[in-house]
């Protein structure tokens, strides 16, 4: 296969992930403007913000096997195109019901990317090289969220409101979906396969290596949503201005992007990928504890933010690469759906647990909850190493 062509496909894979999170987080970025014109309770707002994670948690047993059955190429192309139309449809939404329905469709379309990209790229790259392209496409998700928060509020002001901005938010998805469908070549190793039976799904789920990765996926999304959701508030409580606290979170996200690129590439060179899960656990635990200890001193926290981000960014592509060493391509999308579908439950529960802890105990306990996933990564790494 042409070496240049596979990097073209990787670029459009990056774009699919970018489009998914861009459409997803545009809602949060424009929410203050939406709430100025649309009356919603706090509960309804929370449901709207949690819709994507909830849908992915509830549908992974369907969507993962569906991607395996249809094939990752067409499933992702069509899924993201539909996602793009749903994102643009929010431009005519006038209240909670239509916005909620749009987010459900965005979740279903985006799940094809989360579950299908590792299998799609594994047909273009050998096993000892696939970590780097998976790291690249995963960075697309982080750039999508950054673009949503960094660009869309300004776009909203320029085009005259949140509805026209929503109408434009589906354009990247439509463009990248078209490019993906044009350039993705259906290879025999990534062709559609028969959907696994319920018994097969159950057997895969309880396979020790897969179960360890499901636990890691749960803790990864627990850490991601808790940290990005609460860290700025915790730092503000310790005396930093809202602006400085947000900038420190931005530093963490920058480290996350770097980690997503560097860690899988290192794992390609060094091997022993499971050991990198333990290393990210040590780094993340150190980072969260340091945020608590140095939370009144700005300069050390810049370094702490980078270290924490490197760890958080590094774990994500590893969770997409390691299943390739455990299962065949026929069930790869199903296994990825287990990891990130169950993980979505952690993404929902993490912020809730931090909030409940802060209401009943001290601020340091909140940082302690944020550090828990790092400890879990160390334990999971040891368990995984014993299985190898």
UniProtKB/TrEMBL annotation:
<keyword id="KW-0614">Plasmid</keyword>
<keyword id="KW-0812">Transmembrane</keyword>
<feature type="domain" description="Major facilitator superfamily (MFS) profile">
    <location>
        <begin position="9"/>
        <end position="386"/>
    </location>
</feature>
<feature type="transmembrane region" description="Helical">
    <location>
        <begin position="130"/>
        <end position="152"/>
    </location>
</feature>
<feature type="transmembrane region" description="Helical">
    <location>
        <begin position="164"/>
        <end position="183"/>
    </location>
</feature>
<protein>
    <submittedName>
        <fullName>MFS transporter</fullName>
    </submittedName>
</protein>
<dbReference type="InterPro" id="IPR020846">
    <property type="entry name" value="MFS_dom"/>
</dbReference>
<dbReference type="GO" id="GO:0022857">
    <property type="term" value="F:transmembrane transporter activity"/>
</dbReference>
<dbReference type="InterPro" id="IPR036259">
    <property type="entry name" value="MFS_trans_sf"/>
</dbReference>
<feature type="transmembrane region" description="Helical">
    <location>
        <begin position="245"/>
        <end position="267"/>
    </location>
</feature>
<keyword id="KW-0472">Membrane</keyword>
<feature type="transmembrane region" description="Helical">
    <location>
        <begin position="364"/>
        <end position="385"/>
    </location>
</feature>
<dbReference type="Pfam" id="PF07690">
    <property type="entry name" value="MFS_1"/>
</dbReference>
<feature type="transmembrane region" description="Helical">
    <location>
        <begin position="75"/>
        <end position="93"/>
    </location>
</feature>
<keyword id="KW-1133">Transmembrane helix</keyword>
<keyword id="KW-1003">Cell membrane</keyword>
<dbReference type="GO" id="GO:0005886">
    <property type="term" value="C:plasma membrane"/>
</dbReference>
<feature type="transmembrane region" description="Helical">
    <location>
        <begin position="274"/>
        <end position="295"/>
    </location>
</feature>
<feature type="transmembrane region" description="Helical">
    <location>
        <begin position="99"/>
        <end position="118"/>
    </location>
</feature>
<feature type="transmembrane region" description="Helical">
    <location>
        <begin position="301"/>
        <end position="322"/>
    </location>
</feature>
<feature type="transmembrane region" description="Helical">
    <location>
        <begin position="7"/>
        <end position="31"/>
    </location>
</feature>
<feature type="transmembrane region" description="Helical">
    <location>
        <begin position="43"/>
        <end position="63"/>
    </location>
</feature>
<dbReference type="InterPro" id="IPR011701">
    <property type="entry name" value="MFS"/>
</dbReference>
<feature type="transmembrane region" description="Helical">
    <location>
        <begin position="334"/>
        <end position="358"/>
    </location>
</feature>
<feature type="transmembrane region" description="Helical">
    <location>
        <begin position="204"/>
        <end position="225"/>
    </location>
</feature>
<dbReference type="InterPro" id="IPR050189">
    <property type="entry name" value="MFS_Efflux_Transporters"/>
</dbReference>
């Amino acid at each position: 296969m042409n070496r240049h062509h596979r990097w073209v496909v990787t670029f459009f894979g990056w774009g699919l992930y970018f489009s998914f999170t861009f459409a997803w987080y545009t809602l949060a970025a424009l929410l203050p403007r939406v709430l100025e014109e649309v009356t919603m309770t706090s509960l309804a707002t929370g449901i709207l913000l949690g819709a994507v994670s909830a849908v992915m948690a509830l549908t992974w047993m369907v969507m993962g096997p569906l991607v395996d059955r249809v094939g990752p190429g067409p499933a992702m192309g069509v899924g993201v195109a539909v996602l793009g139309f749903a994102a643009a449809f929010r431009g005519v939404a006038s209240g909670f019901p239509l916005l909620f329905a749009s987010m459900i469709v965005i979740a279903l379309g985006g799940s094809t990317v989360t579950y299908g990209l590792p299998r799609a790229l594994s047909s273009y790259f050998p096993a000892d090289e696939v970590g780097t392209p998976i790291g690249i496409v995963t960075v697309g998700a982080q750039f999508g969220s950054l673009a949503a928060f960094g660009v869309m509020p300004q776009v909203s002001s320029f085009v005259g409101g949140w509805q026209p901005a929503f109408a434009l938010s589906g354009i990247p998805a439509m463009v990248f979906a078209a490019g993906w469908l044009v350039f993705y070549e259906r290879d025999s190793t990534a062709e559609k396969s028969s959907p696994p039976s319920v018994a097969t799904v159950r057997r895969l789920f309880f396979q020790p290596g897969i179960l360890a990765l499901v636990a890691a996926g749960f803790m990864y999304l627990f850490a991601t949503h808790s940290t990005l959701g609460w860290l700025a508030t915790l730092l503000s409580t310790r005396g930093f201005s809202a602006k400085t606290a947000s900038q420190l979170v931005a530093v963490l996200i920058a480290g996350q992007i770097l980690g997503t690129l560097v860690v899988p590439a290192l794992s390609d060179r060094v091997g022993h990928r499971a050991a990198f899960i333990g290393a990210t656990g040590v780094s993340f635990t150190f980072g969260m504890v340091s945020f608590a200890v140095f939370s009144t001193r700005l300069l050390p926290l810049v370094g702490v933010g980078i270290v924490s981000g490197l760890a958080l960014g590094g774990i994500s592509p590893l969770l997409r690469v390691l299943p390739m060493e455990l299962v065949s391509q026929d069930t790869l999308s199903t296994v990825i759906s287990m990891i990130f579908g169950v993980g979505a439950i952690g993404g929902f529960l993490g912020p809730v647990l931090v909030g409940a802890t802060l209401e009943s105990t001290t601020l340091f306990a909140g940082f302690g909850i944020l550090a828990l996933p790092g400890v879990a990564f160390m334990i999971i790494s040891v368990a995984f190493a014993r299985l190898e």
